[in-house]
Structure formats: C-alpha cells, structure tokens
Structures
1.
Amino acid sequence: MSDGFVLAVGNQQVACDRSLTLLENIHRAGFRALSACRNAACGICRAKIRRGNVHYKQEPRGLSEAERVHGFCLPCAGFSDADLELEWAGLQSKDVVDVRKISCQVQSVTPLNTDTYLVSLVPADGSQPQYAAGQYLQLIMPDGSPRSFSIASAPESQLIDVHIKVIPGHERAQQVIDHVQRRQVVTVELPFGECHLPDNEHPLLMIAGGTGFAPMKSLIESSLARHEARDMWLYWGAANKSQLYWHEQMLALSTQHLRLHYVPVLAMADEGWYGATGFPHLKAADDHGDFSAFEVFCSGSEGMARAVYAFMQAKEVPDHRFHSDWIDILRNQGAL
Ligand code: FES
C-alpha cells in the first residue's frame, strides 16, 4: 500500500501522509483549521466522516460514544490509511487566512493572578486592528499551528489583548506564554467568530466562565466607547475569588457607568466572600426570570456553553438572540 492518501473536504483535495495526523496534514498543505488542545481532549476540531475510516493511537477523550456512532472524528489525533472524505466546518480556506494574517509586536505579558496572563499585542505596521468586539484571533506558533484566544480589548483601542490561562499539566498554554515572552514579534490571524455587538438597542446579558470573561470585556468596553444606551449585565462565574482577575476594575467600571451591572458568582463561597455563589446563569435567572428582552452572550468551556444554551432554550430564548462561539462551532459541526 502506498504511504499516501487523499483527504477530501468539500471541493478541497489534500494529498496526505499516513504517518501524520489529519490536522498535521492540512497544516502541511497550507490550510488552517479550528483547534485547541490537539490531543483529542477538547473536541473543538470535530469533523464528520462521509467516506473512509479514521483511527487513533489512543482512545480520543473528546469524542463521546454517540458521536463516534454518528461518524464524528477528531482530526487533531486521527489518522487514515486510505482516501477519506470529511465534513469539516472548522477547516478554513487558504485565501481567507492569508488576508487576515498580521505581524504584531508583543507589547507586554502581565500576570493577572497565579495562572492567568494578559498578553498585549500591537500591529507591527502601526495600523488599527480590524475586528469586532467579541471576536477571537488565532496566534500562530513557530510550527505553524494556530492557538485560538478571545480578544479582550475593544476594537476602538490600539491594542489587541488576550487573556491566557496556564493549567498545570497542560503544556499548550504555557508554550504560548513562552512564545510571546521570547519573541518581540508574533503572527496572528484575525478576526474569527460571529459573536459581536448586535445592531439593535436590546440590553445584553453576558454569562462568562473563567477567561470567558475576555470577549465580554471587549463587548462592554466597545459599547461604552460607542456611547450606546443599552443596559449590560455581566454574570462572571469563577472557582474562587483569585480567578476573578479583573474584579476590582469591573467594580470600578460599574460604579462609573450605571448601565453596566456586574455580578460576580463564585462556585462556592470563599473566605470573606459575601457575593453570589453557584452557577452564573442560575443567578441571572434569579435576578431576571424572563430573558425575552435580552441579547444573551455566553463564553467559557464547551460544557458551560452547552448547559447555558440548553437552559436558555428552556427559557425560550430564540437562537438568533443567543451568541456563543462554542454553540456556533457545534452547530456547524452538526454536533448539536
Ligand atoms: S483540537 Fe482538541 S480535540 Fe482536536
């Protein structure tokens, strides 16, 4: 048998090497695809097999039994020995990627708490960054692989900020921090994602978990910079108070702007914590009951996005009023 096979995605055909993962093969061919963990854990690269077979070196943790039965695979860790056809919503055309690629100077890398960093970038050519509040970028690593991060700054700012959390035992985020600390100039691609300020005056209800706060910060700062009139409610959930790494700034901002309502929610009460505890979307439901007036934004883990989406569906929030990158990705993958 030959060492090669052909991977077909839509009208794209990629000559592949059997010794490489499907994701490595498309990177080698100059394509990009949405990915995060690249070890079959997070599920973000999920694609559907239309023809052929995909196998793995280890059991893929990011794929449920039901998803396997329905023909889904994880290209970041999947191999094939023969021609393969995939429905791969996260695969991006070379043309689109090329026009979005820019060089950025690393302005600063600042710890926000024990494990989360603020990385500030500036376009190296001095141009104004082009993105909408709430969107995300991909930082290109030295091996060409992209790492996705929500943009935490507002497009009205000259900076492009991202918040990166380093989790012990997960080396990928640490690799990004090492990369931006070593390099003066890095490559990013932007913008991605459909979550941005809606073209109406409806109030915003923002449900964030951990560094899912980043795109909410961008939405809030952009709305304030545009002098919008809408009310904004942010429910920011975290495991403990130190994970609310922008807490003091949010308290100060919500004091200055009466249309901004900030509600921090800890999973469990910390020492000296007198605020809300539990899940942020349940706290929002306690406060509002009816969500029909809101544009709802959700940012955090896939599990959180699924739970909040299901909750909002039960509350009859229509899909066009619910904004979440994870839900968009899952819907594009046919995984919802
Ligand atoms: S990138 Fe995480 S499962 Fe593939």
2.
Amino acid sequence: MTYTVYLRPSNQHFTVAPQETLLTAALKHNLLLPYNCRGGSCGACKATLLSGQISYLEQPTCGDKINSAQGDILLCQAIANTDLEINSTLISRVCEISDIKRMPCRVERLHKLSNDVMQLWLKIPEHESLYFQAGQYLDVVLKDGRRRSFSIASTATELPLLELHIRRVNDGSFTQTVFDTMKVKDILRIELPLGMFFLRHDTLLPILFVAGGTGFAPVKAMIQQAIMENRQREMVFYWGVRSKQDLYMHAEIVAWTKTYSFIRYIPVLSDPLPEDNWQGKTGLVHEVVSQDIPHLVDYVVYASGPPVMVAAAHQQFLAQGLPAEQFYSDPFEFAKDKK
Ligand code: FES
C-alpha cells in the first residue's frame, strides 16, 4: 500500500511506501526538497502539512524549530498515514549533482592529522559515475543499518577518491573503529551525495566561512573548488578550535592565503595551552566573528561544525542583522545515528 504526496505550489506528486520518510521518497523520485541532516535535528526540511495525516518514525529533536499547531512537519522524519498535500518549495538543480547512490568503497589511506582527527581516503569503484558539489556529505552505512554522516573534504575532481576528516568520539561508535581497527583495503558501504551545503553563486557578496573543529572539511572542499573555478570572490575563513594542535591543516590554509589574495584566514582558539604561545584571536568563534564584523549583512555566511556552534552562530548573526537567506549551514556533525 502506498500513499500519494501532492506538493504545492509546484503541483508535482510522488508516492511513498509505508515506513518510508517523505524526504526519502521525494529524493527517490528525483524531486529535490530542502534538507540537510536527515536526522531530525537541523530543521532544514521543514514543510507545511495542508491536508492528510503523518506520524514520525522518531520524534524530532529540533522541536523548537517547528510549530506543529501551524502544520509544520519535518520531511526527513515524517511518514504518511494517508494521502498528503504539503507545501514545500522544490529546489531547482542549479548545478550538477548525481542522484543519491549507495555503493561499496575501499579504504585507500588513513593518516592522523592530529591526536583526534583522522584523514580517511576512500576509493569508490572506477565504473561509478558520480558528481557532487564541494561541501556535500556522505553517509557511511553500518552493518546494522545505522548511518554516520561525514562531510566530504575533497572535490569531485579527485574522484574516485573521497577525503573525510573524522574526529574521534569516545562512545564506542564508528569513529573509534576508524582510529583503532580500520585498515587499508577494508570495505565500507556509503551513500552519497547528500545535503544542500555548497557554494551558491547567485550573488557576488563576499563569503564568510565559520567552522568549528572538523567543520573545516566542507570549507576546505568549497575553497578548493572556488580556487579551481577561478572565482576570485572574497572569502574570509574563521576556524574555531580548542588549542593550536587542533588547527590540523593550518600550514595549507596559510599557503592558500599567500597564493590567493582573495582568501583571508583567522584561526580562533577557545582554550589555548601555555605552550601554544598564542598571540591570535581567542574565544568562541561566532563571538569573535560578531565582534570583528559588525556589518554581517555584507556577507553570505557558510557555517559548519558542531550543531551547538552552528545554532549559536545562526542566532547571533541573525540578531545582528544578517538576512536568514544569507546563512547556510551544515549542522549534522554530531547528530545521532540515523536509520
Ligand atoms: S531535520 Fe530534517 S533534514 Fe535536518
């Protein structure tokens, strides 16, 4: 038994199977609706239910971002109990992105970038045709069906290789496997390309990247893609970490700023160690940005990293006058396992 979902205002429709989320079904039908984390935590997939009944696979964790009384629903968690009519704006495919694919890949290389960040290179099968935008992410699909999401730190020009930056989380999760037992030639299952976090070129406003920790990964990809495309758009990159050893690709970024005058880089340490002898910026990265750039309206912001940092940046920047449509984010980094 399937249900039909009618989309307004586009008048498109698609079918959805029992227990299948509305977002999954729409993407399967090649209908691109807004989304990001696919885990019920970011609110990006919010839509309005005009008629019909839904229920949730799991109660969303971003309840504060939706008003159920007004018909708000989250497409990534909602399943249909009847035919539905929903209001959600279709996104036109402004750039080349493959349909979402699941495929095996091989661990090609593991390299420790710092005490708790691993650079993992994966290799997809040579025959796979894949295209993604710098900044998108992939899911590693574990044997029990759970997923872990990681931003892709490389660009599509590096295919069949994909670079990930994985921070160790000591909770017995997949990331511990990466550090402790994973080896070259291991096989993983991945699903990609995912997410809507990529550079938009519908404006020439300068770009302000604000990243926390391994939130640097998608920023790295986006800057590299912009360099390759010779965009020369002003880019300012604030990178917030705890101490100096967490700036795991500092030298590479400094090298970019020396070669490309349109890139500026401001590292920010929240807890510098005495031996860091740190003379640079200190504090929470979003607060430093607010102090340094009172006129945020002159920028388009791309924020990535821990959800709490992204949420704080979003709240503060909008309060400071940044229009909501000039804020893009990738807030899934530590979101819970997804089915
Ligand atoms: S809450 Fe649905 S995509 Fe993030």
